[in-house]
Design a protein that fits this description.
490 residues; alpha/beta; 7-stranded mixed beta sheet; 20 strands; globular; Aldehyde_DH_dom; NAD-dependent succinate-semialdehyde dehydrogenase; oxidoreductase activity; oxidoreductase
Length: 490
């Protein structure tokens, strides 16, 4: 068995981090390990007053940070990256404790999140603008990039390190200061990042975090929504919540980045390499137990290769190891809580009642029980079933078939969401043609793991707007100032 004991237990922080100080006095809420229900820590339950204090600290720090040289921002982020990398194992263990995912996945996420810090530490040095060609004599024109101001970031529980790192790093690189609220189920990973930011000698007020239980989360975010000094809100979560945040941001005309729900199609064409598609499906469906907005939600397979692909999936599922993070062989951990289990059970049950065939799983894990759900395969699924139109957020493959390329595109696009899609074929021309037709912000072609700090990530339609990662992620925290410099002669 693997020990999840930290070499540096002081990285487990339980307070709010505001203005360079840790605030620990006040009511608390419990953070539980979803694998066994044990209490990992009791964390300060912040509210609107702490949120306003955080905004005050960030607004004050912004007046100095906005003027910091690009090299200063870059060097600071690099120190943070070095500390995150140095303590990656402890951060991974902490994540597995509060989120439940296998330790191998936690290690991968820490490296992935650190990649955003490193990337934007480098982009900070290239934070420039444009020289605009003159349109008349005696004039020069420029477009300058400037930081928006205080940026609020609100993150989900499923990737508690990477999601907040990929929001905070570009904000800081752009010259913004940050207020943030991590998810109530998994606040410890974000607070550990704040502890390392403190060690990296972040100026007081540059980064501020306010944890809150579910009941207080709305009040924390609303305090930032009402504050004119908070000029940016970046949120990852459900489409329903994203719509409410967009409405609440209207009075102050905040800039928004919304990375919302997904209903990702996974298209396997008749000429696909089925072994390549299978390994990609393993990553796109079973990573984090299917608890990802990019998870393959609808597996669409050409009817001519259905039998061969289903046989491969059954063999894959038979070989998957489900277990807690302390099991070194575990590939799939628990779902986040009992409500998540109940949702998966309901969707699977409805699909079976409507005519889907259960080929594997379909129940809580027979040995582990609790929040562990057995990897599941359903065939004969149709587009009318709720499981085809709702993010499952569990280790369930819901397989449909199609007859030709045109039907595959129609089925894939028949959703209000548009975050990620996956496509498998050996024909390059076909791949290009279908990629153009897919109405999604991210398309993986013969690839199941597509997220990276060097590429823009985000959706279309009801999956939101804005991009994270790449140079486009930096611009989300910047405004453009046009300067027309006249009277300078020929």
């Amino acid at each position: 068995m693997i020990s999840l004991k930290l070499d540096r237990p002081d990285l487990i922080r339980t307070g709010a981090y505001i203005g360079g100080q840790w605030i620990t006095d006040g009511p608390t809420f419990k953070v539980q390990n979803p694998a066994d229900g044990s209490v990992v820590a009791e964390v300060l339950d912040g509210g609107p007053e702490l949120a306003r204090q955080a905004a005050d600290a960030a607004a004050e720090a912004f007046e100095t940070w906005r003027k910091a040289l690009p090299k200063t921002r870059s060097d600071l982020l690099r120190r943070w990256f070095d500390l995150v990398t140095r303590h990656a194992e402890d951060l991974a263990r902490l994540m597995s404790l509060e989120q439940g995912k296998p330790l191998s996945e936690s290690r991968a996420e820490i490296a992935y999140g650190a990649g955003y810090i490193e990337w934007f530490s480098e982009e900070a040095r290239r934070n420039g603008g444009d020289v605009i060609p003159r349109n008349k004599d005696g004039r020069e024109m420029f477009a300058l990039t400037e930081p928006l101001g205080v940026a609020a970031v609100v993150t989900p529980w499923n990737f508690p390190n990477a999601m907040i790192a990929r929001k905070m790093a570009p904000a800081i690189a752009a010259g913004c200061t940050v207020v943030g609220k991590p998810a109530a189920d998994t606040p410890l990973s974000a607070l550990a990042l704040a502890a390392l930011a403190e060690e990296a000698e972040f100026p007081p007020g540059l980064l501020n975090l306010v944890p809150a239980a579910h009941g207080n989360a709305r009040g924390v975010v609303q305090a930032w929504q009402d504050d004119m000094r908070v000029r940016k809100l970046s949120f990852t979560g459900s489409t329903q919540t994203g719509r409410k945040l967009a409405e609440a941001a209207a009075p102050t005309l905040k800039r928004l980045s919304l990375e919302l729900g997904g209903d990702a199609p996974f298209i396997v064409l008749d000429d696909a390499d089925l072994d390549v598609a299978l390994q990609a499906l393993k990553a796109a469906k079973f990573r984090n137990g299917g608890q990802a907005c990019t998870a393959a939600n609808r597996v669409l397979v050409h009817r001519d290769v259905q039998d061969a692909f289903v046989a491969r999936i059954e063999a894959l599922i038979d070989g998957l190891k489900v277990g807690p993070a302390t099991d070194p062989e575990a590939e799939i951990g628990p779902l986040i809580h009992q409500d998540a289990v109940a949702k998966v059970e309901r969707l699977v049950g409805q699909a079976i009642e409507a005519g889907a065939q259960l080929r594997r799983g379909g129940r809580v894990h027979p040995q582990l029980g609790g929040t562990f759900y057995a990897p599941t395969l359903l065939t004969g699924v149709t587009a009318e079933m709720e499981i085809s139109r709702t993010e499952v957020f569990g280790p369930v493959i819901a397989l449909q078939t199609f007859a030709d390329e045109a039907e595959a595109i129609r089925m894939a696009n028949d959703t209000e969401y548009g975050l990620a899609a996956y496509l498998f074929s050996k024909d390059a021309g076909r791949c290009w043609r279908m990629t153009r037709a897919l109405e999604f912000g991210v398309v993986g072609v013969n690839e199941g793991l597509v997220s990276t700090e060097v590429a823009p990530f985000g959706g279309v339609k009801q999956s939101g707007y804005g991009r994270e990662g790449s140079i486009h992620g930096l611009s989300e925290y910047q405004s453009l100032k046009y300067v027309c410099f006249g009277g300078i002669g020929d």
